[in-house]
Design a protein that fits this description.
The chain has one domain: 3-Layer(aba) Sandwich (Rossmann fold). Helices cover about 40% and strands about 15% of the residues. Helix 2 runs parallel beside helix 3. The radius of gyration is 13 Å and the shape is globular.
Length: about 130
């Protein structure tokens, strides 16, 4: 994990991405926009962080994770009443992101390589009230 302690999570963004370079690039992009960012390399790590008290305003979720895929993560997230209401943005270079977004009830989706401005606009929309 990079970023936050559980007590520092108000208005934060959680990035779940297994590729180090992509994760670092997304983190840097979001931080430059003024957000606090936590990162996880897979869905299991992200769930541990959330269950440990991290409460981001939004989660940026890759689908093709090496362990505990984005699909598995989202299924577990939606089954947990404490976590189910945290919105997600999907980013993927493998799957049909439009279809996956509908299946997973994502608030936005982006195909890699994604439009950075559009992603930041989506993040701002969901973090504005925090």
């Amino acid at each position: 994990m990079v970023g936050l302690n559980a007590g520092d999570s108000r208005g934060s963004v959680l990035v779940v991405e297994d590729d180090d370079a992509t994760r670092d690039a997304i983190r840097a992009l979001i931080e430059r926009d003024g957000h606090v960012v936590a990162t996880a390399a897979d869905g299991d790590e992200a769930l541990r962080m959330l269950r440990g008290g991290l409460r981001p305003c939004i989660i940026v979720l890759d689908l093709a994770l090496k362990t505990c895929s984005g699909f598995t993560f989202r299924e577990a997230q939606l089954k947990d009443p404490q976590l189910a209401d945290i919105p997600i943005i999907i980013e993927s270079g493998v799957y049909d992101v439009k279809l996956a977004a509908a299946q997973l009830r994502a608030v936005a989706y982006f195909r890699k390589p994604f439009d950075a401005v559009a992603m930041l606009d989506s993040i701002r929309e969901y973090c504005a009230s925090q």
